[in-house]
Every structure is written in structure tokens, then in C-alpha cells.
Amino acid sequence: MLNKVDDYIFEVPMGHQRGMIVPGRIFISEKLLAQVEPGTIDQVANVATLPGIVNYSMAMPDAHLGYGFPIGGVAAFREEGGVISPGGVGFDINCGVRMLRTDLRAGDVVPMISNLVEDLFHDVPSGVGAKGRLRVSEHELDETFTRGAAWAVEAGFGVAADLEHCEENGQLEGAKTEHVSLKARKRGRPQLGTLGSGNHFLEIQRVDKIFDEDLAKKYGLFEGQVTVMIHCGSRGAGHQICTDHLQVLSRAVKKYGIELPDKQLACAPLGTPEAENYFGAMAAAANYAWANRQIISAWTREVFERYFADSRLDLVYDVAHNVAKVEEHSVDGSKERLYVHRKGATRAFGPGRSEIPEAYRAVGQPVLIPGSMGTPSYVLCGSEGAMKLTFGSACHGAGRIMSRTQAKKTYVGTEVRDVLSRRGIKVMATHPKMLAEEAPEVYKPSDEVVDVVHHLDIAKKVARVVPLGVSKG
Amino acid sequence: MEPFTYLEHTGDVKFRAHGRDLGETFENAALAMLGAMIDPATVGAEETWTVEIEAESLENLLYEWLSEILYLFEVELAVFSKFVVAVEEGGEVWRLFGRIGGERVDPTRHFFETEVKAVTLHQFEIRKEEGKGGEKIWTAQVVLDV
What we know:
The complex is a heterodimer of chains A (473) and B (146).
Chain A: E1 3-6, E2 9-12, E3 24-27, H1 30-33, H2 38-47, E4 57-67, E5 69-78, E6 83-84, E7 96-105, H3 106-109, H4 113-123, H5 138-154, H6 160-164, H7 182-191, E8 201-210, H8 213-218, E9 225-232, H9 235-255, E10 268-269, H10 273-307, E11 313-320, E12 322-331, E13 334-343, E14 346-347, H11 358-361, E15 366-369, E16 377-382, H12 384-389, E17 393-394, H13 404-410, H14 413-422, E18 426-428, H15 432-437, H16 446-455, E19 459-472
Parallel strand pairs in A: 3-4, 18-19
Antiparallel strand pairs in A: 1-2, 2-3, 4-5, 5-13, 6-10, 7-9, 7-11, 8-9, 8-19, 12-13, 14-17, 15-16, 16-19
Helix pairs in contact in A: 4-10, 5-10, 7-9, 9-10
Chain B: E1 4-7, E2 13-19, H1 22-37, E3 47-55, H2 58-76, E4 78-90, E5 93-104, E6 118-119, E7 125-130, E8 136-145
Antiparallel strand pairs in B: 1-2, 2-8, 3-5, 4-5, 6-8, 7-8
């Protein structure tokens, strides 16, 4: 049973699971809570048993069943006595979203939408096992792992301003390539510059509603404007890095005598070699993901230039939603360095934080919430509530409510494509089955999820964008 | 005995694979994982890959076996349809010898339903239990990140 703390805050009490150190907190509305599986609440409770966890084991309003942490899970750990766990990051390390704003209006773009989507589908490789257009050397792969988007910009994929508008400037410090296995390198090398598959996408959108004129202006957004959203991660490199270190950390659990309710929560005490090596490899994967999104952005710009000479695609922001990072937060009135894990959650820093680009620092960082295919996405602005309640975190998407198996039984991919097409949304995918899995109805409505974080002042609504065209793996 | 069954999981793919011995259980687990990715009827077995794995426990051996198949899939750009596995227990070390039959991915014939990113350790287990007819069978439970 959950205790209602507030209209949008529900507590998982200490007794829910043996060994809980702190209670759980789910930031959600009653209506959305009714759709959350009991297993998700158990996963919130499981995370609450990890050593050194601070305040609460948290879940965002898009919470759903994961493996290890729930999807939408957030937890922070003390440097002293805390742990780091790949269960709180996931296999797709630094899966994330970026948004580019164009200087074009929907009216100009709609007549060309089929050409644009077809070209994007062709120029940005996607799908299961897709190889990239790039052939990077071993040295360039090292640079990708250590310097992320900064390397990509230097190599000609983008401009310096892109880095300013990227979480961590697209380069997480502390990457250690010596802890990236040969297998991870072999998977990562041919896949740099690929979108991947599943829920990853490249979408052309139209800003259809502005909620806050001042904030929208700060972010360079206006009604009717065309934007582009890129959702992808660290591909096989990240998957392999997590797989490799999960086994090392499983051994560490025994070595350091940690008791776990779920093996995927394998972890190591901060400061131990196992923890530091995992952090270094995870940072390398995070950098790979930022380089990947940077390269895809450059190719997206090329496609737009083909049809709209001199068009501009400026990066609004780039956020990670599967990552563990060292951040300073206020705990019981004093500042502490914490290892914040976000598994399917977005950083949502409010005004004043030095990590936010100068242009946005006075108002708070952009928080990008992709919808599902065919439903709106949102741009929000990180706010004070996030700093007080969630270690500066917000939701990351709409949140699944139907399993992939069930989705494929219920929907037919070609019909999903036709329905979207009648609504004026051009969709291309490697196979229609992928579309059934990602049918709009398998997700919670994104507006309800976003309303929760807005009400709690975790992140304020700035703009809503709707899809015009989507390229999927 | 069914070779494997899929269970409901909102975000990911969960299955139970069975076998009369460990080799058969590992083979069926591999088939269940591949079956989540692609229709097995579309996959031939012209080429053979061999795999040898050593691990300190039976669980680790299964985890590494399935992870190795995903690795081969990506770096060899191949899909697989036949698995022959022998598992040896040798005190401290568990050993696996696997022969994998498959073919290189042909985008005109091979349509992927799901991308399996990795094998998770969530609710991961392998144990011997009594089957319906009273015989002892092995069951492996696996959740895949997709």
C-alpha cells in the first residue's frame, strides 16, 4: 500500500520490502498511478535497500516496469558509504534526446515532408544491426570515448555552439578507455552514426503551442516553427560495456558483502576499483552517445540544406536520460556531492546552476520530453521544485503501458502507418512490425505525465510540439 | 515439455526456457532469445560458429552464453537458427562448448521484430524442477532489455 503525501506524491513505506534504508517516493497523479504495475512499486522499494541512498528511492510520473531500477527511477548515493550500480543506468548508457530548432515555418516544410523523411531515413542509418556511414580508426574511437561530442565537432560534425547547448557539454569527465573491452570497441566502431531501433527515432516537428512566451523566447521557440528531435544512445558499445561490468559488479557484491533483492542491482561501494572502473567505462559510453547524436545532427543539417538553402538548425539542448553523474545537491541544509542515477529520467536543473548554459542559466535548463510516435512532445524548463524534491530530475517520456508482445498482437504495423499518414504524419521504418510495437496507444498520454511535473514545479511547461514526419529503425 | 514460453513484461521481453539437460536448456534459451528478434523460419544455417566459455557459476555461464550470441550477431552481422551446446561442470569452473548454425544478415529476407540490446540479470535464474510428468527438467528464466 502507498501513502498519499500530496496530490502528486505517493510514498512507498519502509515496510514494503525487507532491508529498505529509506522510503520510496513516486511523483504521480492518482489516475496515472492506477496504471502502474505492482512490480514497478517493488522495484522502487528494491532500490531503497541500496547502501548510502539519500532521502528517497524515487520514480517519475512515467514510471513503468524495468529491470533493476524501474524506468523513471532516480536515486542519489553519498560518496561516503554509497554505491554505483549499472541497474540504475541501464544497458543503453546515455540514451538521450536532443532538439534542434530551425528558422523554418511548418507551411514551408510540409510540402517537402516526404522528401525530407525519405532522405533522413536514407542518410541516417537505422535499424537492427545497422552499420554507420563512418569508418573511424581505433584512434578516433578512443577520441569518441574520451571526448564525446567535442571530438565530433572537431572532426567536422557541427559547430562549437552545439557543445555549449549539450548537457555536460557533450563530454562527461572521467572516461577510461582501458576499461572498455575489445568486444565493446568492436561493436561500437561500425555503429557510430547510427540511430538504432526500437523506440529510437528522428522526428521533424511543428511547435503547436506555447505555454510560456518568455521562456519560449529564451529557448528560441515560436508557434508554427519547425524543430527536429533526435532520440538515440550509445548503441552496441554501451550495451557491451554494461554487460561486461555487470559481471564484474556481481562479483563485487559478494566481495563487499552487499545483500541485494535483485541481481541487476549489482553494485560496488564508491571508491573501490570496481566502482571506479565501471564509472570510467560508463562515462566512455556516455561520450560515445553524445558523439553519435552530434554526428546524426550534422547529417540532418545536410538533408535540410538540400531543400532549404541557408536554413539554420541550432541546438536547443541535449539531455541524457540513462546515466549516473556526480552532482552537488543540498541535503538537510548542507551541500553534498552525490552520485545521482537516472534510469529513464531527465536532469531538470532550475535557475542559477553553473552546469546550465549561460543563455539559459537565469531561467533553468530545457527539459525535453519526447512523446510516442504520433503524440506530442514537450519542452519544459527545469525549476525549483526539482532541486527540492528530485535531485534536479524530471520524467523522460510518456512511459509504456502495453508490452511489446501485446502491442504486436493488438496492432498491425501497416495500419498504424496508414492512420498516422491520414493525420498528416509521414512515417518510415525498416519494418512495419516496429511500428506496431511503438503504436501511440502503447504509451501513457504524454500530456498527463507532463502535467504532474508542471504541478509540482519540477519543470514548467514551455512548448508543445507535434510530429510532421518520423524516421525509425 | 515446451522448449520455451514468453511471459508478459511491459518494457522488455521475458522468457522461460526448458531442457532435460543443461545443454538442451541453453539451446532453448538461445532459440527463445533469437525468436524475440526474428522469425526463425526465415533463417538458414549455412555457416557455423563455435563458442567456448568458462565461468565460475552456472548462472554466469548462461549469462555469458546469451551475451556472446548477441555479440556475434552484431559483429558478424549474422542471424542464427541452430544451437548445439554441451555444458561441463568441473568443480570451480563451468565450461560450455557451443556450435551455432546461422547465416549472414540479408536485409531483403531478414526482418527484425525487436532489437535485443542485452541480457539482464533481473529475475535471472536457472534451476532444476519437477516437470508435469514427474521428470526433472531444467528451467532458465531470462529478461532481455529490448
